[in-house]
Design a protein that fits this description.
Blueprint: H1 2-17, H2 19-33, E1 38-45, E2 49-57, E3 65-77, E4 80-93, E5 96-98, E6 101-103, E7 125-133
Parallel strand pairs: 4-7
Antiparallel strand pairs: 1-2, 2-3, 3-4, 5-6
Length: 134
């Protein structure tokens, strides 16, 4: 029993030490799957919150989104982890009208497919400091 406990403890410590590499792999894989070029740094990665800095989404020469920092607060429920809140600072977002609809460039590929229902914001606490849209 002691050996099993020590092995589990060693595994937990290993996962905790490698958590930024694991998260980077997950984020990069999801961005690549959506074909969204991105650059970011993971500044902090804790159980209940994460902080990314120097976030750039889209073409690096003319990005669709730039943010100095993005923080998320997560929780764990019966159905697994979920996003509670997002905060972002010094955000620059580029949008344009295409055929009468707003397009956010590469960010469009990260949004869910249209459901046919009227637009509704998610039940999410969101705070954006110093944002500009052009």
């Amino acid at each position: 029993m002691l050996v099993v406990a020590l092995v589990l403890l060693a595994l937990l410590i290993g996962v905790w030490v490698l958590r930024k590499q694991i998260a980077t792999g997950f984020i990069d894989r999801e961005l690549a799957r959506a074909e969204v070029p991105a650059r970011y740094e993971i500044a902090d990665l804790a159980l209940g919150g994460q902080r990314l800095t120097n976030v750039v989404l889209g073409d690096p020469a003319d990005p669709d989104l730039v943010a100095d920092w993005v923080e998320t607060r997560t929780g764990i429920g019966l159905s697994g982890p979920y996003l509670e809140a997002v905060r972002a600072g010094r955000v620059r977002l580029r949008g344009r009208l295409v055929d009468g609809r707003l397009s956010l460039g590469a960010i469009d590929r990260l949004l869910p497919a249209p459901s046919g229902k009227p637009f509704a914001l998610p039940a999410l606490d969101a705070t954006v400091d110093d944002a500009r849209i052009r």
